[in-house]
């Protein structure tokens, strides 16, 4: 943000104070005062409309919505916006970023105090929102049994060593991750989240903490409960997860249904999983046509060939030709290690990182970490 103009909104119901702020900012061009909102209940609407970088809120706002409530509402609605609480010495206010107060400005103040604080808050929030960069990765295959759940869990654990990771159990009917990790049926799931506005604390209450260190948002414990999760719910939860985690890894069921499409649409990257199996290759080729019709750019898609050493007479080049895309990653078979790890609910990337199968998954993780850093579309594996 350095060097850029900062967009400021003022929520103030005392006209003299608003015009004082305006006059102090008149002599400079680094901060642009967008508007003055004179009532707390219109603040969030104006933030959405005017997209300020920083909002000054009078702590002593009269009316239905208090200054503190305005600050909290803004933080929930748009965590990238910085909030400065304006107050008088007789009404001390504490800085509390969680509650939406990034800084406190006490009256009286000079033009220098005002511009310095606005710039500081604007720049801090800009850095924070850049850090809030996240990568949402959906593992997909229209054919079942190709290894999505196994790869999703191991990939998430591999990334979890250095990043904040949430694994989403997107196999909403059968909750594959519950099965894999032997999670008790009473453990809460995505259906336990509120359907209107979801807060970070709601998610903290619901997420399953895996011993590996990653958080897992589980699918419901019973098949029929999947119907309780709407596509709108999925969109909302993913947008919150983006703000809280660096990586959101999503396991899906073998289908191209509405729920899976939301997980695909919301993804920065779709990892298509296949094996050397004519049915898997055929269905993925059909899905590729659908993706093209939807308008997914090629940079949104990458392919993992699982069990790559079991070619079954197929040639890799032929498979790539059928798919119309290169195979980006290969993960070999290791029936014994996968079986024993999956049966214990453990990640082989953690228990046996040197094994060739783990090395394959770790290469995918490395590439994703690089992509997060640069947000470059090209995946490099070879
Ligand atoms: N690289 C591998 N080497 C050996 N076995 C594997 C490998 N990947 C997956 N498996 C095994 O293949 C089976 C299917 O794996 P997994 O359940 O992860 O696939 P899926 O695509 O999620 O299947 P579903 O359609 O049931 O959701 C499991 O028994 C798993 O242990
Ligand atoms: Mg599965």
Structure description:
The protein has 382 residues and is α/β, with parallel strands linked by helices. It has 2 domains: 6-131, 3-Layer(aba) Sandwich (Rossmann fold); 135-374, Rossmann fold (3-Layer(aba) Sandwich). Helix content is 41%, strand content 17%. It has 14 helices and 13 strands. It has an 8-stranded mixed sheet, with helices on both faces. Strands 2-1-3-4-5 form a 5-stranded parallel sheet, with helices on both faces. Strand 1 (6-11), helix 1 and strand 2 (31-37) form a beta-alpha-beta unit. Helix 2 (43-50) runs parallel beside helix 3 and helix 5 packs across helix 14 (356-374). The protein is elongated, with a radius of gyration of 25 Å. The chain starts with 5 loop residues before the first strand and ends in an 8-residue tail after the last helix. 38% of the residues are buried. Residues 141, 144-150, 171, 176, 254, 306-307, 331, 333-335, 338-339, 342, 357 line the site of adenosine-5'-triphosphate (ATP). Magnesium ion (MG) binds next to helix 5.
CATH architecture of the largest domain: 3-Layer(aba) Sandwich
CATH superfamily of the largest domain: P-loop containing nucleotide triphosphate hydrolases
Q: Report mean pLDDT, rounded to a whole number.
A: 92
The CATH class of the largest domain:
Alpha Beta
Weakly predicted, low-confidence segments? 376-382
Which strand order does the major sheet show?
Answer: 8-9-7-10-6-11-12-13
Described by strand count, sense and barrel closure, the largest sheet is:
8 strands, mixed
Structural class by SSE content: alpha/beta
> How many beta-strand runs?
13
Helix content: 40-55%
As a whole number of angstroms, the C-alpha radius of gyration is 25 Å
How many H/I helical runs?
14
Number of self-contained structural domains: 2
- Principal-axis shape: elongated
CATH topology of the largest domain: Rossmann fold
- Please give the alpha-carbon distance between the first and last residues: 36 Å
């Amino acid at each position: 943000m350095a060097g850029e103009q900062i967009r400021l909104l003022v929520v103030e119901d005392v006209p003299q104070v608003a015009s004082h702020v305006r006059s102090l900012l008149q002599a400079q061009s680094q901060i642009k005062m967008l508007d003055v909102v004179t009532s707390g209940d219109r603040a969030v609407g104006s933030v959405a409309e005017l997209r300020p970088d920083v909002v000054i809120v009078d702590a002593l706002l009269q009316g239905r919505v208090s200054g503190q409530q305005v600050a909290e509402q803004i933080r929930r609605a748009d965590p990238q916006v910085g909030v400065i609480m304006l107050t008088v010495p007789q009404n001390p206010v504490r800085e509390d970023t969680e509650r939406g107060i990034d800084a406190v400005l006490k009256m009286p103040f000079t033009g220098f105090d005002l511009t310095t604080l606005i710039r500081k808050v604007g720049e801090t929030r800009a850095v924070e929102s850049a850090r809030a960069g996240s990568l949402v990765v959906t593992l997909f295959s229209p054919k079942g049994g190709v290894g999505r759940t196994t790869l999703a869990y191991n990939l998430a654990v591999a990334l979890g060593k250095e990043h904040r990771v949430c694994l989403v159990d997107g196999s909403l009917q059968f909750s594959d991750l519950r099965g894999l990790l032997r999670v008790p049926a009473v453990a809460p799931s995505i259906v336990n989240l509120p359907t209107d506005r979801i807060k970070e604390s709601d998610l903290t209450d619901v997420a399953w903490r895996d011993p590996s260190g990653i958080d897992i948002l589980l699918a419901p414990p019973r098949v029929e409960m999947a119907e309780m999760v709407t596509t709108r719910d999925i969109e909302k939860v993913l947008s919150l997860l983006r703000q809280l985690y660096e990586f959101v890894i999503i396991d899906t069921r073998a289908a191209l249904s509405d729920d899976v499409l939301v997980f695909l649409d919301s993804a920065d990257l779709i990892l298509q999983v296949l094996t050397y199996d004519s049915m898997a290759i055929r269905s993925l080729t059909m899905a590729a046509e659908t993706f093209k019709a939807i308008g997914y750019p090629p940079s949104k898609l990458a392919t993992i060939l699982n069990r790559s050493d079991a070619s079954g007479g197929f040639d890799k080049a032929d498979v790539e030709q059928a798919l119309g895309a290169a195979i980006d990653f290969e993960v070999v078979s290791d029936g014994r290690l996968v079986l024993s790890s999956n049966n214990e609910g453990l990640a082989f990337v953690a228990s046996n990182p040197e094994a060739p199968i783990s090395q394959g998954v770790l290469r995918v993780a490395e590439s994703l970490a690089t992509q997060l850093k640069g947000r470059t579309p090209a995946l490099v594996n070879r």
